[in-house]
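Progress against Task 2.4 (sequence-to-structure conversion) is shown through the following example record, which the project officer requested during the mid-term review.
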Amino acid sequence: MMTEDEIFSIWAPDESLWSCWVKPVLFAHMDSPLSHLPTVEPEVDVHWAPVPEQKHALVLDLPGSEGVWVALALAARGYRPVPLYNAVPVPFSAPIYLPAIGKAIAAVDVMPTLSSLRTGAGRLAHLSLASDAPPIFLLDANRQGDGRKMQPHEFDNRSVCFTTDFPSANYLLAQGIRRVLLVQRGATYPREDLSHILRRWQDAGLVIDAMRMESPGQPEHIEVARPSWYRAMFQRALAAIGLRRARGGGFGAWVPDPSAGG
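Structure tokens generated for the chain above:
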């Protein structure tokens, strides 16, 4: 059985140009018994993807573990998955579901993603990917939760992505990457937090295309408008307002009881 360090090294090998961007947050919780739950690998069709020789960077902003499975199918074609998941799972000893109120205790259920990363490591380890294989950046489309107001004693692990979570446009261009393909469900336009990254890339000359996973076909070119507080020094702080940082990195903490304050 692989350790969490071994699993992380498979997803972030030393020789890859993109490993320094792989987020260690979920990998630090691979010792959770729930990460060993069996996973059902879905059938994934990635005929829509450009061939790696075209040097596209892909951004998969897909819900839960779907992005992991799509990325593994693309890895078999020569792409390098780069997981950017930033939400901490519920602590191991805590319940994950509250029958009395009919909902999960956590804002975002990351356990299927955690389990898929563990299972997928075995597949990824058997692929011979080039050190400069084009990247697939993986985000959880559910990172902001389901919109509910978090209550005391619930686990708030909603998260956002920042520009520092991704390589700069200059770095991408230096690797020969000129186009970016955003893949989502339900929409082609990026979410607010991701739009800050894509707009910076666009300003530097990269072409941004988009495609919906439920209707794969010819990608459409998109122009990313300037998001609110674009390039503002305090944009990062604004984006994280109301979110709870985990002590060991990433996002996730219990919502305190207001009456328990000092």
